[in-house]
Amino acid sequence: MVNGTVQTLTIAGTDSGGGAGVMADIKTMQERHVFSAAVVVAVTAQNTLGVADFMAMPKKMIDEQFKSVAEDLKIRAAKTGMLADVPTVEAVVENLKKYDLGPLTVDPVMIAKGGARLLSEDAIQTVKTELLPLATILTPNLPEAEELTGMQIKSEDDMKTAAQKLQDMGVKNVLVKGGHNISEGKSSDFVLLEDGNSFWVTSPRVDTNRTHGTGDTLSSCITAELAKGKSVEDAIRIGKRYVSATIADGIQVGHGHGPLNHWA
Ligand code: PLP
């Protein structure tokens, strides 16, 4: 039985407030009925009001965590989240090349909704050249897609162009998250698949400030579904539905930008 349990891995930063990062990842994987291990690459001090501070893990600790997980568990899919800085991105890339962890979802976390930078500016280039070519799916929001492509995204056509540019950088499948910014009254994301097919996934707009950890939750749900053997298209559609449900029926935690309802 134990060996048949579907196992996933999140490679990301923690959130002391419990709403985002590794905490959101594990809650999501649990709700999607897969087991999740975690390689913690950074620790943040934060709550729903914002990020007070963070510290990246030394390379040796990152290496040891990967080794411990890989020696014992059978990881079927993995994701990356907050990667902090150049040495951390480089350490993660080195380990991703060393171990077979299945399809990789890269959530290119850069700036928290509260404004805190979770990836140093110089590390964006390292992510582009070293991490993106390893990604099965990349899930940028609009600001992240703009940083990675160098273009301004103001329309649905721009989102399509950005997705193509990102695929040209070596990513197999791209999900550009438009959120509420481009399409009136709904949240629209554009998907460009490896085979060239593309489609939009949409959900109704929900007026709430309880959206902390949305990106982590979406990318974790996608990872969980890939681990179960779902196609990229199905994993993305399930992920979008799951995130919409966690936003629609919020919970009351903290005084600021609250976390999602993973029981929804
Ligand atoms: N903290 C960590 C560790 C994260 O990984 C993320 C998002 O990926 C955030 C904070 C930001 O969460 P949000 O922008 O949804 O508030």
From TrEMBL:
Residues 15-261 form the Pyridoxamine kinase/Phosphomethylpyrimidine kinase domain. It comes from the Bacteria. It catalyses: 4-amino-2-methyl-5-(phosphooxymethyl)pyrimidine + ATP = 4-amino-2-methyl-5-(diphosphooxymethyl)pyrimidine + ADP; 4-amino-5-hydroxymethyl-2-methylpyrimidine + ATP = 4-amino-2-methyl-5-(phosphooxymethyl)pyrimidine + ADP + H(+). One of its GO terms (biological process) is thiamine biosynthetic process. CDD domains: HMPP_kinase. One of its GO terms (molecular function) is ATP binding. Pathway: Cofactor biosynthesis; thiamine diphosphate biosynthesis; 4-amino-2-methyl-5-diphosphomethylpyrimidine from 5-amino-1-(5-phospho-D-ribosyl)imidazole: step 2/3; Cofactor biosynthesis; thiamine diphosphate biosynthesis; 4-amino-2-methyl-5-diphosphomethylpyrimidine from 5-amino-1-(5-phospho-D-ribosyl)imidazole: step 3/3. Its EC number is 2.7.1.49, 2.7.4.7. Keywords: ATP-binding, Kinase, Nucleotide-binding, Thiamine biosynthesis, Transferase. It is an enzyme of class 2 (transferase). GO terms for cellular component: cytosol. Coiled coil: none annotated. Belongs to the ThiD family. NCBIfam families: HMP-P_kinase. This is Hydroxymethylpyrimidine/phosphomethylpyrimidine kinase. It comes from Lentilactobacillus curieae. The lineage of its organism: Bacteria, Bacillati, Bacillota, Bacilli, Lactobacillales.
